[in-house]
Specification:
About 75% of the residues lie in helices and about 0% in strands. The protein has about 110 residues and is mainly α. α2 runs antiparallel to α3, α2 crosses α5 and α3 packs antiparallel against α5. Keywords: Membrane, Transmembrane, Transmembrane helix.
């Protein structure tokens, strides 16, 4: 998911991550709970890791400025929030993909 998500994010819009997570859960026939957890961790690592790399490359200047716009949020907290958004998007996508099979899969 990390490799596919990184390629998808480079070439497509932000919503490619939940679509990819749904396809992975559907193809690998993941049950809902493991799909939700795997999607969450994959999205957190992908978006949080990428945000951390970008933050480190510009010495936190951009995240500090963006954080000021949102009421003084610090740069590291903004990176964490970005990772959490990616985690939620991917988790919901993977969960949807696992439920799309139609069997209960419990």
């Amino acid at each position: 998911m990390l490799v596919g998500g990184a390629v998808g994010q480079a070439l497509l819009a932000w919503w490619s991550l939940p679509v990819l997570a749904a396809l992975i859960a559907l193809i690998f026939r993941l049950r809902p709970r493991p799909a939700l957890l795997g999607g969450f961790l994959g999205g957190l690592l992908l978006w949080g890791g990428y945000a951390a790399v970008l933050n480190a490359q510009n010495d936190g200047i951009l995240s500090a400025r963006i954080g000021e716009l949102f009421g003084g949020i610090g740069g590291p907290l903004l990176v964490l929030i970005t990772g959490l958004f990616g985690a939620i998007f991917a988790a919901l996508g993977a969960w949807t993909g696992s439920l799309a099979r139609g069997d209960s899969g419990s």
